[in-house]
Amino acid sequence: MGEENKVTLHGFWWSPYTKRVELALKFKGIPYEYIEEDYVNKSPSLLNYNPVYKKVPVLVHNAKPIPESLIILEYIDETWKTNTPTLLPEDPYKSARVRFWASFIQQQLLDTGLAMVTKTQGEAQDKAINLVFEKLQVLEEGMGEFFPNGTPCIDDKNVGLLEIVIWSLFGPHKAQEEVFGVKFIDPDKFPLISAWVTAIMELPLVKELTLPHEKLVGFLQMARQRTLQSTTT
Predict the structure, then answer these.
(1) How far is it, in rounded angstroms, from Cα 2 to Cα 157?
(2) What pLDDT score was predicted for residue 221?
(3) CA 206, CA 218: separation in Å to the nearest integer?
(4) Measured at the alpha carbon of residue 159, what is the angle toward residues 108 and 146, in degrees to the nearest 5?
(5) Whether 143 contacts 193, CB under 8 Å
(6) Which of 136, 115, 127, 113 is CA-nearest to residue 188?
(7) Which residues contact 143 (CB under 8 A, 6 or more apart)?
(8) What pLDDT was estimated at residue 227?
(9) Can you tell me the mean pLDDT for 83-89?
């Protein structure tokens, strides 16, 4: 890989935002260098590349940094147009709908819903879990426009932005279930989402990037403990 087309990804091994960028690069067949950042002592390079938010992921292409995972995914798709799969539809309206639901998944389910479940307990956590269920029901109904027959058919040639985003959120759903004591991906409550996530998890590249269950459980337990301690001190 020549310096004129060098791709570097700065990330955290446990970050769902980092994992979604890694998966997009692998599906597109784009060679890249991965740099693991220290969550506490972030490198000068990261702070220089993302001085506004000071967080991962940051993709550096031809010495030019691109922060924010959803923006990175669109950049990857637009820059490597000839590499398949195509992450966004060519039709502007369909592409806008994909962007809408990707934003919904990130803002309503990951940044708000699961984040609240992680840092609360007791009655507050029950409310956060119910909120996640409410948002999942909205998503379940909304995905009907993409899977009108109710059966998602996913392979490595038709994976898109939504598949990558939903995997980054609920790929570790079994670890989430063990740590939080709640089953989010419930085929009885959300049959379409459950079938969708199951189909994505069977893809070889997804299996390659999925972290070991016990490692995920250990990290989630540690993160939850630290967050609860910080909110009570």
Answers:
(1) 27
(2) 94
(3) 21
(4) 60
(5) yes
(6) 136
(7) 101, 192, 193, 196
(8) 84
(9) 97
Q: How far is CA 114 from CA 110, 174, 206, in A?
A: 5, 14, 21
Cβ-contact 199, 147 below 8 angstroms: no
Joined tokens for residue 2: 């020549």
The structure tokens listed for 202 are 């069977």
Distances (CA, A) of 182 to 36, 56, 109, 168, 179: 31, 28, 15, 18, 8
pLDDT per position as a tens digit, 45-62: 999 999 999 999 999 999
Q: Do strands 7-11 and 33-36 pair parallel, antiparallel, or not at all (unpaired)? A: parallel
**Which structure tokens are listed for 88?**
């966004």
Distance CA(212)–CA(218), nearest Å, equals 10
Residue with tokens 């419930």: 186
Rounded Cα distance between 134 and 49, Å, is 37
Rounded-to-integer distance, Cα 90 and Cα 82, Å? 13
Token code pair at residue 195: 């079938």
* Phi, psi (degrees; rounded to nearest 5) at 60: -115, 115
Which residues are bridge partners to 197 per DSSP? none
